[in-house]
Automatic annotation (TrEMBL):
Alphabetical list of Pfam families matching this protein: PEX11
GO biological process, one term: peroxisome fission
Keyword terms: Membrane, Peroxisome, Peroxisome biogenesis, Transmembrane, Transmembrane helix
Protein name as annotated: Uncharacterized protein
GO cellular component entries: peroxisomal membrane
Record InterPro entries: PEX11
Transmembrane regions: 89-107, 127-148
Segments for region (Disordered): 159-181
Species the sequence originates in: Diplocarpon coronariae
Amino acid sequence: MSPANAVTQVSRFVGDAAGLEKTLRLLQSLAQVVAACSLTATAAAPWLQARKQFALGRRYLRVLKFIDAFTFAFDIFSRRSGLLAVLEFGRWSCLGIYLLLESFTILDEMGVVSTTWAAGLFLEAMKFWFCSLVLGIFSGILELLGLLGKNAGLGKRVEEKHQKSRKNKAEMTQGRPTERDATRKKIAKRLFIDGCDLFIPGSATGWIPTSSANVGMMSVGSTVLSGLDVWNRVNV
């Protein structure tokens, strides 16, 4: 890849709203890690300020994102049924509530106003984000179990009906991932991302006792993985 092409791809990524959000999130996470590893409060202060500004920039980009989350939840409620649908409905509903509550505190974060309830409301918002991630993890596990069950049933039928041609089919499809394999990898990736992100609201609420450095590193990992999807989308 030539330097000019690399710069163009980076420009496309940062120029995309989702790509810009991931970039700011990565910078925020790195600033948090550096601040947590600083030896003195004086050394950590500029990094904490940078983290705060990167976080504020991200909030501008998602100030109305609760609408999308509630739309997803309503679509699932009206079109699907079953345990998986219930988990997904709860996941997107909790995410929408988190984003809605968070949006009420943005003026305090900007320094425009100073209220007594913003900090408490933000903490409640983080609790809903935590619940959203937990429901998403349960949903992903249920999807994986469903895929494994389908694989077992399909394998049994194929063995019974096509035992003689099994070897030839294996040779023809060797090294070629199936659609189910791709789906399984996608779900596993989402589970890893949600698991890493769980430390952010978990730490804020006190439900997951951990250090600020660990939270920052988990956030770096989830941001890089989720950012790759955006990178591939804008640079196809």
